[in-house]
């Protein structure tokens, strides 16, 4: 890997291991029904030790440099659980994870792991699209009587809706890389041609109506 900024290196890893795939001419269909030239599955990172270690260390650096000094690391289910646990282990901090909904049996927990009241929490997510699942986790942690000092994600599409939602929730967030950085690396490394950039930028402007039949 060349000496690139962290955001560029993370983007390069995501492309190299096919965690992110770009198909402007043969779009994917998301669960929402949106047609998309990009598909992101950051769970693939776990199968690649070099990428996994780099992203773990990038989060540790992010948290350390932020001076937030959290008491606990929390992962958002499901994509943020494994990476969050790796970060917590590296930082010698307790770990918990936040379910998308409470268990329907047993203790009916929403939060699993070691989280007491009145602790400061750094939340780790794998991907931010609309931001709704991330902010649901933040809300659950706050309801538990804790303070979320910040949220970090591996990748964001950079939608305005997500930025506005985080602002409204008064939740600071950071990402290791983003859509614009990914496209830049994809062109420079020949994952896509320069002729395909226009399609990718058009999708980013209004993904809900892009190439709808």
State the CATH topology: Rossmann fold
Taking all residues together, what is the mean pLDDT? 93
Count up the domains: 1
- Identify the CATH architecture: 3-Layer(aba) Sandwich
Strand content: 15-25%
Spans with pLDDT under 50 lasting ≥5 residues?
none
Strand arrangement, major sheet: 7-6-5-8-9-10
Please compute the radius of gyration using only Cα atoms: 17 Å
Dominant shape = globular
The top-level CATH class is Alpha Beta
Strand/helix succession: HEEEEHEHEEEHEHEHH
Distance between the termini: 41 Å
What does the largest sheet look like?
A: 6 strands, mixed
Helix fraction, binned, reads 25-40%
SS elements, strand count:
10
3D architecture notes:
This protein is of the alpha/beta class and 213 residues long. It has one domain: Rossmann fold (3-Layer(aba) Sandwich). It has 7 helices and 10 strands. It has a 6-stranded mixed beta sheet. A two-stranded antiparallel sheet has the order 1-4. Strands 2-3 form a two-stranded antiparallel ribbon. Strand 8, helix 4 and strand 9 form a beta-alpha-beta unit. Helix 1 runs antiparallel to helix 2 (49-66). It is globular. The N and C termini lie far apart (41 Å).
